[in-house]
Specification:
Helix content: 40-55%
Number of helices: 13
Distance between the termini: 47 Å
Order of helices and strands: HHHHHHHEHHEHHEEEEHH
Strand content: 5-15%
Mean pLDDT: 91
Shape: globular
CATH architecture of the largest domain: 2-Layer Sandwich
Low-confidence stretches: 5-16
Number of domains: 2
């Protein structure tokens, strides 16, 4: 049984526009109340005039930095825009993915495996844009913003950051996504994650023969309290599993993958070597 089947879907007809429009209207009201121009707000939020205009019109999902800038420049906001922001961001995700994002935000440990791409949680904005562009979405900018903002779970202050364990096939590092510059920056970001003591990055070498047999990306979320859950990527959508047997099978599979992979230190050296050989 999937998590979606266990819980009633409280998402009414998709209210995606409503939180965006509400946030945008509040920004415009406060900006005009103090006589601030869109250009001045853009300067305070380190963004363009056009982005401020799109946020106010409900046409763009604001970043966390934008919401925090609003709280800094608008008197007596008392953190209102930062509090509104998670609701706005939530509706940038497809309805089927929102439950996973809510759980990911609460996780204390995240284990992930991907055989073909770097997962969204570790993508740079340029890599994410190149991946998402292939689906030709009409809201590409919002999808990139939403994907990158998920990464806050790895750097937050309260509660303590989630620990990440990541296993990738070697081909993930060699698959050209976007430009060589995009890949070089992406592998540098991955290398920095690999050097962070709380995280583990392991690469499964392509030995030219045989295959480990795991084809689908999947991950496990662990929490300070409560049982683990599994997320399996798929087309046209992923799904969550909470049955103990499913979680146990996924955990066993992940253990096997880590056993097949190179140790973290040697994996970090592989990242450096492939970056130099393929993208320098």
């Amino acid at each position: 049984m999937t998590v979606e089947e266990q819980e009633t879907d409280t998402d009414s007809p998709d209210p995606a526009d409503s939180p965006l429009l509400h946030f945008g209207r509040e920004v415009q009201i406060e900006r005009e109340r103090i006589g601030m121009s869109r250009g001045a707000l853009g300067k305070a939020a380190i963004c363009s005039y056009s982005l401020v205009a799109k946020v106010e019109a409900g046409d763009r999902v604001p970043s966390r930095d934008f919401a925090e800038a609003c709280d800094r420049v608008f008197p007596n906001s008392n953190g209102r825009f930062t509090r509104l922001w998670p609701l706005v961001l939530r509706y940038a995700y497809p309805p089927w993915f929102r439950r996973y994002v809510d759980l990911e935000r609460k996780a204390s440990k995240i284990r992930m495996f991907n055989p073909g791409l770097l997962p969204g949680l570790v993508q740079t904005p340029e890599y994410a844009r190149a991946v998402l562009r292939t689906g030709r979405p009409s809201n590409l900018d919002d999808l990139v913003t939403a994907r990158i903002e998920r990464q806050h779970v790895l750097t937050r202050r309260e509660p303590e950051p989630a620990r990440l364990a990541l296993v990738l096939n070697e081909v993930v590092l060699r698959n050209l996504v976007g430009s060589r510059e995009t890949m070089r920056a992406q592998l540098l970001h991955l290398r920095n994650l690999a050097e962070t003591p709380a995280h583990r990055v392991q690469i499964i070498k392509d030995k030219g023969a045989g295959h480990h047999g795991f084809h689908s990306p999947f991950g496990l979320l662990s929490f300070k309290e409560g049982a683990d859950v599994v997320h399996v990527d798929g087309f046209p959508r992923g799904y969550l599993l909470a049955e103990p047997e499913d979680v146990a099978n996924a955990s066993d599979a992940y253990d096997l993958l880590t056993a097949m992979a190179e140790p973290p230190d040697e994996s970090a050296e592989m990242i450096d070597s492939i970056s130099k050989d393929c993208y320098s």
